[in-house]
From TrEMBL, chain A:
The keyword Nucleotide-binding does not apply. NCBIfam families: NDH_I_L, PRK06590.1. The keyword 4Fe-4S does not apply. It is a multi-pass membrane protein. InterPro entries: NADHpl_OxRdtase_5_subgr (IPR018393), ND/Mrp_TM (IPR001750), NU5C-like (IPR003945), Proton_antipo_N (IPR001516). This is NADH-quinone oxidoreductase subunit L. It is found in: Endomembrane system; Membrane. The chain crosses the membrane at residues 29-54, 66-84, 90-107, 119-136, 142-161, 173-192, 212-231, 252-270, 282-303, 310-328, 334-356, 377-400, 420-446, 458-475, 508-528, 607-627. It comes from the Bacteria.
UniProtKB/TrEMBL annotation, chain B:
Its main location: membrane. The chain crosses the membrane at residues 6-21, 28-50, 56-80, 92-114, 134-156. The gene is nuoJ_1. It is a multi-pass membrane protein. This is NADH-quinone oxidoreductase subunit J. It is found in: Cell membrane. The lineage of its organism: Bacteria, Pseudomonadati, Pseudomonadota, Alphaproteobacteria, Acetobacterales. InterPro entries: NADH_UbQ/plastoQ_OxRdtase_su6, Nuo/plastoQ_OxRdtase_6_NuoJ. It comes from Acidocella aquatica. It catalyses: a quinone + NADH + 5 H(+)(in) = a quinol + NAD(+) + 4 H(+)(out). Belongs to the complex I subunit 6 family. Its EC number is 7.1.1.-. PANTHER family: NADH-UBIQUINONE OXIDOREDUCTASE CHAIN 6 (PTHR33269).
From TrEMBL, chain C:
This is NADH-quinone oxidoreductase subunit K. InterPro entries: NADH_UbQ_OxRdtase_chain4L/K, NUOK/Mnh_C1-like. It comes from Acidocella aquatica. NDH-1 shuttles electrons from NADH, via FMN and iron-sulfur (Fe-S) centers, to quinones in the respiratory chain. The immediate electron acceptor for the enzyme in this species is believed to be ubiquinone. Couples the redox reaction to proton translocation (for every two electrons transferred, four hydrogen ions are translocated across the cytoplasmic membrane), and thus conserves the redox energy in a proton gradient. Keywords: Cell membrane, Membrane, NAD, Quinone, Translocase, Transmembrane, Transmembrane helix, Transport, Ubiquinone. The lineage of its organism: Bacteria, Pseudomonadati, Pseudomonadota, Alphaproteobacteria, Acetobacterales.
From TrEMBL, chain D:
Belongs to the complex I subunit 2 family. Keywords: Cell membrane, Membrane, NAD, Quinone, Translocase, Transmembrane, Transmembrane helix, Transport, Ubiquinone. Its EC number is 7.1.1.-. The lineage of its organism: Bacteria, Pseudomonadati, Pseudomonadota, Alphaproteobacteria, Acetobacterales. The chain crosses the membrane at residues 6-26, 33-52, 72-92, 104-121, 127-146, 158-178, 201-226, 238-258, 270-290, 297-320, 326-346, 367-388, 394-413, 420-438, 450-467. It is an enzyme of class 7 (translocase). HAMAP family: NDH1_NuoN_1 (MF_00445). InterPro entries: NADH-Q_OxRdtase_suN/2, ND/Mrp_TM. Its main location: membrane. Residues 121-418 form the NADH:quinone oxidoreductase/Mrp antiporter transmembrane domain. It catalyses: a quinone + NADH + 5 H(+)(in) = a quinol + NAD(+) + 4 H(+)(out). This is NADH-quinone oxidoreductase subunit N. It comes from Acidocella aquatica. It is a multi-pass membrane protein.
Length: 628, 166, 102, 511, 503
């Protein structure tokens, strides 16, 4: 059964190839059957494989299959091959199942678009590439998937290609992530050069064997991998591309820019966690970056009015949690949060898409309102997603995953729990900004007319994901709430046993965190449901307005980068458009021309002048010959 | 003999200088004839009597007379002389003159550094010259005849239509 | 016979040569240019005679004779050409003959 | 038949033909007949050259010597002369300015005889007379179309400047003679063999003045100024003749002279020649750069080409002698071909030749065969494969590299690159699309003999460019004698020049 | 003897194709196609025989060797040899040659005979360059390539063709002459050393020289090769030539001719001058890195689509230069793959650009835009190759770049890190091209037709080739291994690095 693992990425890939060769001429029904069906098939196979894996675990709780050796040059022999262990299994399941739901949703959402088959081709390609990423046996193959998802992200952000702004957003996404990829690539060079392989498991083993903890090499390698992860996962300082990436169709945002691709960085670090364990300083940096991103993105999310941008900043922020978890060594907590986040964030995006498609693609929350009653399905699913994101206690999956991270952070936090504090503050902010959106969008007066209706292909995924967003957290609960540890047990073969946090202090913190998220929701209610004139006036004071604008632009990172990198680059390009080096040759040519003119004029046609030269030449010749 | 050499040299240089500076063609040619005669005398003092004779007969006698004839035919009279004078402005001749002087100074300084030797005092009779000409130089003399033939043919062709054209 | 060092007649030859050259460079009339060339050739002939005197050989005089042949040929062809150019350009100005240049 | 008479056969054939032509002119002016006789005489001379190429040098009076070297170049210039006759016949017929045309052949034969004498001369007297016979006959040929002002002007310019240069040459010879009392090359060489030269100021000054005369004939910078004017003014076949025969003969003589007297013993002389070579290569090519008269372009390019061959002369190794000989052969074939094309395109009746570059626009499409031939010739001049020019250029560069003549080589490279520009420029004009209407394409009535001759030349260019081994063998054979006399002075091939303090040396080569 | 046929077949085909145009206008095309196909068969035949390579003592393994006398007086022989490296490059040459004939089918309608003559002669010269084992013959074929290419550009090029053609010629010929000096100097040094004057590669290998001499001679070789490659700052002929050439000319130029520079560095520079090469390696690698970045910057700034692709070549070949002087197996295999992949991807991009020009009569990207709507197939293919050229894993270019950088990292980490930056800039120019051309609001008037069948077939082959290279390049490595071993045999210890550390 496990040997069929290669089918999981291969089927979507085949679907993509068929759609590409079909070149837009296939009937849309066939397109959706191929597009959705291939991922469905892949999800089914993945599920069977998972069941097989769990019921009869392979030796060592991991399974490897090599399709063919990609290259074999001396000791450099990366393979096209897959590696299945609990970690990649979870990733595979999330990718295929969420992917299936989103594609199903898309088949209706995108109906009528002229690029319908192109959309499914890209999406299938993405799913295939993402599966390669999570299942790859070798780092190089992983890198191939890594770049593949980047490409698909580019293609799908710029899907509506006729608007240059979309193209710009797509290029920005690709290039900014590529900066990170470069780091990863150099990391691969370093790892291979010093450890002699790129197969992940032996690589990690060799690293632990040959490198002492805290030494230069693992630190360097970890830094480079971290750079890659930061770029892909939109963490500070490479987070700027993600909000712009919302230019793509909403299902794309849901699948790529929320559920799966952006968390690839988290997966990568988790996958190479042994290396990070060897580089405590870098691991600390992961945590700090995560914490910083949490806060920065949450504040930015609070000031957006595009519903998708709110979600985008929220994604950045939530991935910050995952990084925080990784940074404190709570590997399974990070993966847990990844999974839960995939559920609720996909749900939020799909719900947002469901809203905008009924509002003539209106994205501004301030031009929505009162939709709760008009779009009940969208409302309830968005609300459930928001609750899960805000980690409303007990009933939402987000609560459990966030708790797991926060408690791990506290445990790791040392004397001053700065990281923990950041996490808690962000929990409050998260609740605040998402309920701000909920209240503004769904309550109050109707501002934009609603049209159309939903088919089952939209409602079904919403319902399914809502369920997951609610119950998906019960696989791992804190000690105080039942102490279920299914999830971390399952991952234990990858990450080792997670420490159990218990005691009354833990329960107290649990309570506090619950209150914090409730407080956020409450404050949102106070501020946005019952619009207080004092608050409105305060928000309109110039100083506050300035801050809001600053936060609206995502802390001005774009401006900074424009000034530091983009504009100088463009200026150099513009100045040198005609290739300064060529001037050197033009000067040589000009010199020849001038010499020609000079000599040309010496040919006066006058016989006495010629004779004079003859005599002068003779004079010089004699002088050289005799007087030399 | 030495005195004769100095006198002849002086005359040769002076009359040559006059020859190249005269405006009137005939005058110039006459100065040239004097110069050639003086050089013939120098030849004689150098013991080259045969060459001296050739100089007088062929050079002064034939070649220069041909040129005199030409000058007459072209009627380079007063107007031409005036134009020549006009052409002989310092601006025109100063540069070439300096070039000539420099070249001369250069060669003179070179020659003065070397050793030109002294006369061998052997008298070379026309007979010796004749023997040389029809001995080792025989084929050269034949070649010289071809040279003259070329000059003849060339001059003939170039002047050919002149009669018809008047 | 001459008893001074041969440098002196040689200097005479150089002087005449330079005068001839100056004549070629200075004069604009073709006839004078031709004449100056004759002076130069004559100076070269003088140099040969000087050399022959040094070695007591006849070769120098033979060379002189050949120079005469050349001089005569030059004059013959030259005069024909001068007639021609005068016919075409109605002038003997050497500077005017500059159709060919550049 | 005595070996001397046998060896003199080519010369005799030329002289007899000349005299016969002269006599025939007096009897009956018949262009066709005279051309035929000239051709027959030249063919005879060519056959005689081939048949009589002596295994050992044959001396004809102390003045001349016929050996393999002489025979090789003699065959070359006679062949070129035949080509010129073939080209001239139609040209003269079409020129038709009322004057006699038959003297042309007489002059051509005499010029060739002069060149032949140069090739065989072993003495300054024969050298001088050969040179002057060539010059005087050339003046007649250059100014042959007397109705053309340009031709007359060219003739006069050549006369005056050749006269001045001859005076320099003669004065130089006189100084050498004064110094050593002999004018024989071998005798001079022998004198220096026994007494190595030290400060022979007269001889050096004499060599320098001699160089002026030779430099004039080879149109080396700064003695080059006559070349473009004469090339432009002379009728196209004569231009070809001037460009090839007079230059090749003088250069061949220079090679022999240098080898025999051992000019390599005088570093300062080599310096002077290097300077002339470098100046010629650079200035020649630069002058041609934007020139728009094709005959002038070829004049300038020939200036540069002789700069290149001088590099071989400077090197002086056996391989360099071969290189120079091969180069001259390639140059002769190419140049006569190029002027052949110009001749065939010219309509002599209209008073000037097809020499405006503009009149070649689109030639590839109006006269594909002629343009194709010209293209090949240009490629050869530019030194590109698979033509003789390519092998020639490599040969010359090889000889320069062998002696590490870094500065001349640098000039050679720079010069060839500049040169490429104008060859390609001509090519671009040939290939440019529509022939301009302003100057309608030249006569389509090309002579079949001329065309056939061009065909032969082009085939030769390719054949000897792709498979040069036979020609190289012939050249090796021809220059072997010279190389032997050269070897006396250069006991070891690559020491003499490099030991001279003045020669440029590579910083990086083996010390 | 088969080797001589390999070189001669295109030449003969060219000679036949020229007059055939008089008979029928399409005849030259068929003749060219036939000649090249036949040549390909010859090559495949040779390849099939490669299981029994000829072992030359100390000179590695050769699939075939040919030696005929040519100019014995000067130690010149007609010596050809085929090993893995040359086999791959000849294969590339013939493949792209056939493709060029096909894409010219409709583009070239005037003077088809002369066009195909030139095309085939360029190919013949290039094959000669890849096969020559005599330095004189090498130089001969090196020059043979130029002239027909000059004609191709000067006759069938675009608006500024004469300038571009002359510039191309002057650069290559000027540097070629310097190489000639170096070749001759090497021969003379060898003669002084051993007494034999020869141009044979095998004999010249291992010639002992003073370090300074070796350096100077090597620089002469390098100049010609880096001009051809081209490396900054000798690259300025390339954008002009590529832009002005007809599509087939651009394909051959970029796909094949540039590779001769790389081939020269591989075959001659390092094996003949191992010590000097190791001293020079940092400089060369620096030039490579500069080329990568500088070419990409310039590519980004262009408005002319062919110029953009041309500058991207500068960038790609910077990698090649980098890899060659890293001189370890990884980097060299990368170089081989990069050469093949660059030939394919850039060739395809030039075909795309040519197709666009054929349809829109401009190369100015500011007048393109939104072509996807009208020309979906062309746009998709264009985008595919743009993405290939930015180095997406799974496509050939990635393999090349990755291996080169990996190899370079092992030799000189700093250069590898700097070179990796080129991956970012490559994304910038490739994507801006896609954006300006295929994306954005439709600007140009709706052009006539999308790609037609022959072009599609060509593109399909190219796509398949580049994917094959990207996913399963092992056959290429296997073929190249013997060739690279031949080269590395000349430098038994590898290139000693500047810091004295063996790789």
């Amino acid at each position: 059964m496990l040997h069929a693992i290669w089918l999981v990425p291969a089927i979507p890939l085949l679907g993509a190839v068929i759609l590409i060769i079909g070149c837009g001429r296939l009937p849309s029904l066939l397109v959706s059957i191929i597009g959705v069906g291939s991922v469905a098939l892949s999800a089914i196979i993945a599920s069977f494989i998972s069941i097989g894996f769990i019921t009869t675990p392979p030796p060592g709780n991991a399974f490897t299959i090599i399709l063919w050796h990609w290259m074999a040059i001396g000791s450099f022999s990366p393979a096209i091959g897959f590696y299945l262990d609990p970690l990649s299994l979870i990733m595979m399941l999330v990718v295929t199942i969420i992917g299936f739901f989103i594609l199903l949703y898309s088949s209706e959402f995108m109906a009528g678009d002229e690029g319908y088959s192109r959309f499914f081709a890209y999406m299938n390609l993405f799913v295939a590439a993402m599966l390669v990423l999570v299942l790859a046996r070798d780092l190089l193959f992983l890198y191939a998937g890594w770049e593949g998802v980047g490409l698909c992200s580019y293609l799908l952000i710029g899907f509506w290609y006729q608007d240059p702004a979309n193209g710009l957003a797509a290029r920005k996404a690709f290039i900014v992530t590529r900066i990170g990829d470069t780091g990863l690539m150099i990391g691969l060079f370093l790892l291979f050069t010093h450890l002699g392989t790129l197969e992940i498991q032996p690589l990690m083993l060799r690293a632990t064997q040959s490198w002492p903890a805290g030494s230069t090499m693992p630190t360097l390698a970890a830094v480079l991998i971290l750079i890659g992860a930061i770029g892909k996962s939109a963490q500070i300082p490479l987070q700027t591309w993600l909000p712009d990436a919302m230019a793509g169709p909403t299902p794309v945002s849901a699948l790529i820019h929320a559920a799966t691709m952006v968390t690839a960085g988290v997966y990568l670090i988790a996958r190479t966690h042994m290396l990070f364990a060897l580089a405590p300083a870098v691991q600390m940096a992961v945590a700090v970056i995560g914490a910083a991103t949490l806060l920065v993105a949450a504040f930015a999310a609070l000031n957006q009015h595009d519903i998708k941008r709110i979600l985008a900043y929220s994604t950045i922020s939530q991935i910050g949690y995952m990084f925080l978890a990784l940074g404190v060594g709570a590997w399974s907590a990070a993966i847990f949060h990844f999974m839960v986040h995939a559920f609720f964030k996909a749900l939020l995006f799909l719900a947002a898409g469901a809203i905008t498609m009924r509002l003539h693609h209106e994205h501004d929350i301030f031009r929505m309102g009162g939709l709760a009653r008009r779009l009940p399905v969208a409302f309830w699913s968005f609300f459930i997603g928001a609750a899960s994101l805000a980690a409303l206690p007990l009933i939402t999956a987000g609560f459990y995953s966030k708790e797991m991270i926060l408690s791990a952070t506290w445990a790791e936090g040392g004397r001053i729990p700065v990281l923990w504090a950041a996490g808690v503050i962000t929990a409050f902010l998260t609740s605040l900004y998402i309920f701000r959106a909920v209240f503004i969008v769904f309550f109050g007066d109707l501002k934009t007319p609603v049209s159309g209706h939903y088919g089952p292909r939209i409602t079904l995924p919403l319902i399914a994901l809502s369920l997951l967003a609610l119950i998906g957290g019960f696989v791992e609960t804190p000690e105080g709430l039942g102490g279920i540890t299914l999830f971390s047990k399952f991952l234990a073969s990858v990450f080792g046993e997670a420490p159990v946090v218990s005691g009354s202090a833990a329960n107290l913190r649990l309570l506090a965190a619950s209150l914090v998220s409730l407080a956020g929701a409450g404050l949102a209610y106070a501020l946005y449901m019952r619009s207080s004139p004092r608050f409105t006036a305060w928000a309109a004071t110039p100083a506050v307005l300035g801050w809001r604008r600053f936060l609206f632009t995502g802390w001005g990172f774009d401006r900074l980068y424009n000034a530091l990198a983009v504009r100088p680059f463009l200026a150099i390009v513009r100045v040198n458009r005609n290739d300064a080096v060529d001037y050197v040759y033009q000067i040589i040519a000009l010199t020849c021309r001038m010499a020609h003119q000079f000599l040309h004029q010496s040919q006066t046609g006058r016989i006495r002048w010629y004779a004079g030269w003859l005599a002068a030449g003779s004079l010089v010749t004699i002088a050289i010959s005799v007087l030399q | 003999m030495n005195d004769a050499f100095y006198v002849a040299s002086g005359i040769a240089v002076l009359s040559t200088a006059l020859a190249i500076t005269r405006a009137n063609g005939v005058h110039a040619l006459l100065y040239l004839v004097i110069s050639l005669l003086a050089v013939a005398l120098v030849f004689y003092t150098l013991g080259a009597a045969f060459a001296a004779a050739l100089e007088v007969i062929v050079y002064a006698g034939a070649i220069i007379v041909l040129m005199v004839f030409l000058v007459m035919m072209l009627n380079l009279g007063g107007a031409a002389a005036a134009r020549e004078t006009q052409w002989m402005k310092p601006r025109v001749w100063i540069g070439p003159a300096i070039l000539g002087i420099v070249l001369e100074a250069e060669i003179v300084s070179i020659l003065a550094r070397g050793d030109a030797g002294v006369p061998s005092l052997a008298v070379i009779l026309p007979r010796d010259v004749g023997i040389a000409m029809f001995g080792p130089y025989l084929l050269c003399v034949e070649l010289a005849s071809m040279l003259l033939l070329a000059a003849l043919a060339g001059a003939y062709r170039l002047a050919y239509l002149e009669r018809a054209e008047g | 016979m001459l008893t001074v060092p041969l440098l002196q007649p040689l200097l005479l030859a150089v002087l005449l040569f330079a005068l001839g050259l100056t004549g070629v460079l200075v004069r604009r009339n073709f006839v004078f240019i031709l004449m100056s060339i004759e002076i130069m050739l004559n100076a070269a002939g003088l140099a040969f005679i000087v050399a022959a005197t040094r070695w007591g050989q006849a070769d120098g005089q033979v060379m002189f004779a050949f120079i005469l042949v050349l001089a005569a040929s030059e004059v013959a062809v030259g005069l024909a050409l001068i007639l021609r150019i005068r016919h075409r350009l109605t002038t003997l100005d050497a500077d005017a003959a500059d159709l060919l240049r550049g | 038949m005595s070996p001397e008479l046998f060896a003199a056969l080519p010369f005799l054939a030329l002289s007899v033909t000349a005299v016969a032509v002269m006599l025939l002119i007096a009897v009956r002016r018949d262009h066709r007949l005279i051309a035929a006789i000239t051709l027959a005489g030249l063919l005879l001379a060519l056959i005689a050259t081939g048949a009589t190429a002596p295994p050992a040098p044959v001396t004809l009076t102390p003045m001349f010597q016929v050996d393999g070297f002489t025979s090789f170049f003699l065959a070359l210039i006679i062949a070129v002369c035949i080509a010129v006759v073939l080209l001239s016949y139609t040209y003269l017929n079409q020129m038709d300015d009322g004057g006699p045309v038959e003297e042309y052949y007489l002059l051509l034969l005499l010029a060739t005889l002069g060149a032949a004498a140069l090739l065989a001369s072993m003495h300054f007297a024969s050298f001088f007379l050969g040179l002057e016979t060539l010059s005087i006959a050339l003046i007649g040929l250059i100014a042959y179309p007397v109705k053309r002002a340009r031709a007359i002007e060219a003739g006069l310019k050549y006369l005056v400047l050749a006269g001045v240069s001859s005076a320099f040459l003669l004065f130089g010879i006189a100084l050498i003679y004064l110094d050593f009392g002999t004018m024989s090359f071998t005798a001079l060489g022998r004198i220096w063999d026994t007494n190595p030269p030290h400060g022979d100021i007269y001889a050096l000054a004499g060599f320098a003045m001699l160089l002026t005369g030779i430099g004039f004939k080879l149109s080396l910078v700064p003695f080059h100024m006559w070349a473009p004017d004469i090339y432009e003014g002379a009728p196209a076949p004569v231009t070809g003749y001037v460009a090839v025969v007079s230059k090749v003969a003088v250069f061949a003589l220079l090679l022999r002279y240098f080898a025999l007297i051992g000019g390599y013993r005088f570093p300062s002389l080599l310096w002077a020649i290097s300077l002339l070579a470098i100046l010629s290569m650079l200035a020649g090519n630069l002058l041609a750069l934007l020139q728009d008269n094709i005959k002038r372009i070829f004049a300038y390019s020939s200036i540069a080409h002789f700069g290149y061959v001088l590099v071989a002369l400077l090197a002086g190794t056996p391989i360099a002698l071969q290189a120079a000989s091969y180069y001259l052969t390639a140059y002769a074939v190419t140049t006569i071909g190029a002027f052949g094309v110009i001749t065939l395109l010219s309509r002599p009746g209209i008073g000037h030749d097809a020499d405006r570059l503009e009149s070649y626009r689109g030639l590839m499409w109006s006269h594909p065969w002629l343009a194709g031939a010209l293209t090949v010739l240009l490629l050869s001049l530019a030194g590109l494969p698979p033509t003789m020019g390519f092998v020639a250029e490599i040969y010359v560069i090889a000889s320069g590299v062998g002696m590490q003549l870094l500065l001349p080589l640098a000039a050679l490279i720079a010069g060839s690159v500049i040169g490429l520009y104008y060859y390609l420029r001509i090519l671009a004009v040939l290939l440019s699309p529509a022939p301009s209407l302003a100057s309608p394409p030249a006569t389509p009535k090309t002579s079949p003999t001329g065309g056939a001759m061009l065909g032969v030349l082009v085939i030769l260019l390719f054949a000897l460019g792709i498979y040069p081994a036979p020609l190289i063998s012939a050249i090796q054979h021809a220059t072997a004698g010279l190389a032997r006399s050269r070897a006396i002075y250069l006991a070891e091939d690559n020491t003499a020049v490099t030991q001279s303090p003045g020669m440029p040396r590579s910083p990086g080569y083996d010390q | 003897m088969m080797l001589a046929w390999l070189m001669a077949l295109p030449a003969i085909g060219g000679l036949l194709a020229w007059p055939a145009a008089l008979w029928h206008r399409a005849a030259p095309r068929w003749i060219s196609l036939a000649a090249l196909t036949l040549d390909l068969l010859v090559l495949l035949h040779l390849w099939s025989g490669s299981s029994a390579p000829i072992d030359i003592t100390g000179r590695g393994q050769w699939i075939a060797i040919l030696q005929l006398p040519w100019i014995p007086q000067l130690g010149i022989s007609f010596q050809l040899g085929l090993d893995g490296l040359s086999l791959l490059l000849v294969l590339l040459t013939l493949g792209l040659g056939i493709i060029s004939v096909i894409i010219s089918w409709t583009e070239i309608t005037e003077r088809t005979g002369f066009f195909h003559f030139n095309l085939l002669w360029t190919l013949s010269g290039t094959i000669g360059v890849f096969l020559a084992l005599d330095l004189f013959l090498f130089f001969f074929t090196w020059e043979i390539m130029l002239v027909p290419m000059y004609f191709l550009i000067a006759l069938w090029g675009h608006e500024n063709r004469t300038y571009a053609a002359i510039k191309f010629f002057l650069f290559t010929q000027g540097s070629g002459l310097v190489m000639l000096l170096a070749i001759l100097a090497l021969a003379f040094v060898h003669q002084r050393e051993t007494g034999t004057f020869t141009f044979s590669y095998f004999q010249l290998l291992g010639t002992k020289m003073q370090p300074a001499t070796e350096m100077w001679i090597m620089l002469g070789f390098i100049l010609a090769f880096v001009v051809k490659l081209p490396a900054v700052p000798f690259h300025t002929w390339l954008p002009d030539a590529h832009t002005q050439a007809p599509t087939a000319g651009s394909v051959i130029l970029a796909g094949v001719l540039l590779k001769t520079g790389a081939y020269g560095l591989l075959r001659f520079v390092v094996p003949l001058f191992p010590l000097a090469a190791s001293r020079f390696a940092p400089v060369a690698m620096l030039l490579g890195v500069i080329g990568i970045i500088y070419g990409a910057l310039l590519a980004f700034g262009q408005n002319d689509i062919k110029r953009l692709v041309a500058y991207s070549s500068v960038s790609h070949l910077g990698f090649v230069l980098l890899g060659i002087f890293a001189w370890n197996t990884l980097a060299l295999q990368g170089v081989v793959v990069q050469m093949l992949a660059h030939g394919i991807s850039t060739g395809a991009l030039f075909i795309t650009a040519g197709a666009l020009q054929e349809r829109l009569h401009t190369r100015d990207m500011s007048r393109f835009g939104g072509l996807w709507a009208n020309l979906p197939r062309l746009s998709a293919i264009g985008m595919f190759f743009a993405i290939a050229s930015l180095g997406l894993p799974g496509l050939g270019n990635f393999i090349g770049e990755f291996l080169i950088l990996l190899g370079t990292y092992q030799a000189h980490p700093a250069f590898a890190v700097a070179g990796t930056l080129g991956v970012i800039t490559a994304a910038a120019y490739a994507l801006i091209m896609v954006q300006k051309t295929f994306h954005g609001p439709p600007r140009a008037a709706a052009p006539a037709a999308d790609l037609h069948a022959p072009h599609m077939a060509v593109m399909a082959v190219l796509i398949a080739a580049i994917i094959w290279l990207g996913l399963y390049p092992q056959p290429v490595f296997d073929v190249a291994t013997s060739g690279l071993a031949n080269l590395q045999a000349a430098t038994p210890d590898g290139l000693l690095l500047a810091d004295g550390r063996p790789p």
